[in-house]
Design a protein that fits this description.
It contains 6 helices and 9 strands; from the N terminus they run βαβαβββαβαβαβαβ. The chain is of the alpha/beta class. The chain has 2 domains: 68 residues, TusA-like domain (Translation Initiation Factor IF3), CATH 3.30.110; 107 residues, 3-Layer(aba) Sandwich (Hypothetical Protein Ychn, Chain: A), CATH 3.40.1260.10. The strands form 2 sheets. The protein has a 5-stranded parallel sheet. Strands 1-2-4-3 form a 4-stranded mixed sheet, with helices on one face. α3 runs parallel beside α4.
């Protein structure tokens, strides 16, 4: 068993440390210690995406997740053609903010009506506010999610803006996954 001490580390360091440890073994277990729930949730999500079983134990403020790596690796992300849309603002383009907000609303709505949907939509920085339940874009995003589009919001950004509990579409994620999705994309679109 490989033990990884990620106590005191913030996103995306625990994910990177864990992925590096998993690369070192063909099969077996990696035990990761973290001291915050967001890191634990990110590690659980990563394990599920990679197809690995895991167990979690909590001792005071410390969480230990033991990831069981099996010999037959599942691909982390399928390689079929995919498009990733990244949104980092409440506005589309530069210029008048009111116009930018109207354009962004129109962009997300139009995206939801397209025949060829993107594989993933990533919200980061102020863009995470578009994934909250009170957003004018919420219903269009729920529609996209219902049609199989992966909706991801940056956890660090959601915490920064104080909207983590208000995000009711898709999943909260980490910087490692945000970078990974973009690197594996056939194309990345930023409105």
């Amino acid at each position: 068993m490989i033990k990884v001490n990620a106590i005191g580390q913030t996103c995306p360091i625990p994910i990177i440390m864990t992925k590096n440890a998993l690369k070192e073994i063909e099969e077996g277990q990696v035990e990761v210690s973290v001291d915050n729930k967001i890191s634990l949730e990110n590690l659980q999500k990563m394990s599920r995406e990679m197809g690995y079983d895991y167990t979690v134990a909590e001792t005071g403020d410390i969480f230990k997740i033991v990831i069981n790596k099996i010999k037959e690796d599942l691909q982390e992300f399928d390689e079929k053609e995919n498009t990733v849309v990244v949104i980092d603002s409440l506005f589309m383009g530069k210029g008048d903010p009111e116009l930018g907000k109207i354009l962004m609303k129109g962009f997300i709505y139009t995206l939801s009506e397209m025949e060829n949907l993107p594989k993933t939509i990533i919200f980061y920085n102020e863009g995470v506010k578009l994934a909250v339940e009170s957003s004018e874009n919420f219903n269009d995003l729920k529609n996209l999610e219902a049609h199989g589009v992966e909706i991801l919001s940056c956890g660090t950004c959601a915490n920064f803006y104080g909207v983590t509990e208000e995000i009711k579409v898709g999943n909260i994620t980490n910087m490692y996954t945000i970078v990974e999705r973009q690197l594996n994309a056939k194309r990345v679109i930023k409105p």
